[in-house]
Amino acid sequence: MMKRILSFFVAVVMVITMFTVPTVSAQTNPNSKGDQQKMINIAHRGASGHAPENTMAAFQKGFDMKVDYIEFDVHMTKDGELVLMHDLTVDRTTNGHGYVSDLTLDEIKQFDAGSWFHEDFVGEKVPTFEETLDVFRGKVGLLIELKSPERYPGMEEKVAEALKERKMDRSSNHKVIIQSFNHESMKKSKELLPHIPHGVLAGPSWANVTDEQLEEFSTYADYFNPNMTIVTPELVSRIHAVGMKIFPYTSRTQEQANRLFELKVDGIITDFPEHVYFHPVKNQ
Ligand code: G3P
Ligand code: CA
């Protein structure tokens, strides 16, 4: 009898293990070994190579893949609600039409944000910023991008309020970062949330960023996150010299991830987190 109970117990454990061990586990992550370079793995718009960008499905996939951060983009609706979407309009990533700023939250919630990607995601909704905080805070790092804040007066205050309500603005919380291409917005946000690290995003036109500019950024930002095409070993050194870190965007191939590894950046923003885990780390 005892033997039978034991076999049943072993079988149950085996079945549970089969269904819960993620595709990419910490054990198979070469970065988890102590003698190898640790690379921060950031799922861009969630694990958007595997699930529709900026949806709960993509964030959950990133979480299941054990990334360090999920990245997402924040816009504001006509009725002042913060929602997650990359583009100014809902057209590309939902079955709706129009500018986010011309639609109410109720209208946006009617749209399907998953079927454009794959039929497996039919019914996926556009998440709000607050819903996402409530599901993922404390579980995975959040890299919050304010999209076009110049179009949305009061956006920085609303983001700060949502974080403060949840006590996510404390100095001990190192798993929230706010970033934007709008650097004035980051200055303002840093004043509202002095304990939260901020990042300046830099497109290809910042290829010749000067040391003076980097110094200035470092007065309010902790990260200089550039388009990966402008990253050179010198740029990485200069960013580190002013005390900032660098998370380039957006790696979509294994070769791109490998190159960023060799450049010794601090983190990689990628649609495919598995590329960061499976980088063939050289002996050092
Ligand atoms: O995290 C940086 C990256 O997301 C910026 O580019 O256009 O994908 O939001 P984009
Ligand atoms: Ca983004």
What is the overall number of helices?
Answer: 10
The major sheet is characterized as: 8 strands, mixed
Number of domains: 1
Q: What integer value in Å does the Rg equal?
A: 20 Å
What class, by secondary structure content? alpha/beta
Order of secondary-structure elements:
HEHEEHHEHEHEHEHHEH
Describe the fold and architecture.
32% of the residues lie in helices and 14% in strands. The protein is α/β, with parallel strands linked by helices and 284 residues long. The chain has a single domain (41-277), classed as Phosphatidylinositol (PI) phosphodiesterase (TIM Barrel, Alpha-Beta Barrel), CATH 3.20.20. Strand 1 (40-43), helix 2 and strand 2 form a beta-alpha-beta unit. The longest helix has 19 residues, at 2-20. Bound molecules: SN-glycerol-3-phosphate and calcium ion. The site of calcium ion has 3 residues, from strand 2.
